[in-house]
Amino acid sequence: MKSCTTANAFLLQRWINSGSSHDCSLETSRFLRDYAVWEINAFLWISLITITCLLAQKLFKLFRIWTQASKIPGPPSPSFYGHFNTISKQSLTELLSDSHGEYGSVVKLWLGPTQLLVSIKDPELIKEMLLKAKDKLPLTGKAFRLAFGRSTLFASSFYKVEKRRESLASELNGSLRKGANMIPTKAMDCIMAELQQFTGKGSVDCKMVSQHMAFTLLGATIFGDTFLAWSKATSYEELLMMVSKDACFWASFSVTPFWERGFWRYQQLCTKLRCLTQDLIQHCSRSYKLYHHTDPVSHNETENAGMEATVGSKSYSSIFLQDSFFQQELNGELNAREEPCGNINGMLFHGSLTTGGLISNVLMRLAIIPEIQHKIHSEIIMARKGSGEGDQPNVEKMPLLLATLYEAARVMPAGPLLQRCSLKHDLRLKSGVLIPAGAILVAPVQLVQMDDSSWGNDAIKFNPYRFLSKTENISGSLSMDSSIAGPAEALLDKKQSSFVLNDPNENPAFLPFGSGTRACVCQKFAIQGVATLFASLLEQYEVCSTNNLLLPMSPFMKLS
Question: How much of the chain is helix, strand and coil, in % rounded to 5?
């Protein structure tokens, strides 16, 4: 009986203990569950507060932009999406022309509920804006980076490109002072030979030939004879234009479209382009090593000649790049921000686009106005007197040719708009207008360069004599329609020194190369290079118009 009682007590104690343990386990489980719920709720509250703060900040910025923009004159927004639908039906240049005529020299347009565009037409205000607004549109920098890689010349932020631009400008100005040849002689021979082949086949499209000449010109200037002998140059040009064509489309996505097959095909093209660029760099590196090894004396004499390529290295007699750069590039020793492929491809694309457009415009104008072409030909022949057969023409003795290039750039600029923005700071103009940070700032170049108030009553006419002045105490520009035009032209044929070329940049309305902090640093090189090209071209060819095509004709090969 006693043992039975003991056993019951033991069982009762075990039951009590087990119940207590069970309650403890339940309490622990309930505590962990409540703690997890508390953590999740805290996270959700923190996320909600953070998102609310971000949205409130964006909303504040939006109201701030709306408030500041309300003080800028401009047409009322037709819908919530601004003037986007209007622009899709009417060209932006026409819309800006109408808006400036009605609202003044500074007008606003809404491209969307959050995107403000401010257009400035007054030349003095444009000059001020281009000095203060140092950044370019983020979309532009994103497109260049997507297509060509990181670049220290074409980034949106001015801070990222300032040092490289200063270095490039310093090298270019030094080369100009030393009188270095911008265009390798073999490059000119190659272009002339290709023109002979083109015209020998019959008619050739003017724009296609102009772009190819510009690409060959730039490639030979940067890489020298190696580029001319490179078997993949044609494929490289086609691929570069193909990649650049779709860059803005894929860069317009807010989120990288990894789900699109077309995007991956585009990435493959970009990779192939970079590989071709690396192949060209290696070819140039090997050629330079051979040149330096076989002719060290010539190397030392010409060590500082030529232009600095977009990657920041110097060129040599054939505009070769320095060996040190190639070793760094091939060994991957460059800074993370330095991508020579991005600089080179960006320079080739941008330069081919603008230079090719200028060449095409000049060809068209020479075909339409043969009188100017004949006078330029006479000017070239006179400037050639006393020079050797293999010498490059001295374009400084050809004021009419240079004036024709400037006038072609004025009448038909490479683009209708100059675009800038100030990413971080508001911009206040001397007229009192306050432009909020992040707004797109544009200068309608096409309107400004055809404005009668800046260029006279003949602003719409092609008149290169507006950039020429007589040396006999007569200042100002000459007009072909004035009484002085006839005698002036005759005098130009007889005595080249009777006219001097005015500096086109003295007129603030001359903007084909931009102005201010982001102006084209290669302006002088581009003009002198294209002038050298046309001096050689017009010495052998005559330009004529046949449905905007190129046709051969004796005694000169005629182009149009």
Answer: 60, 5, 30
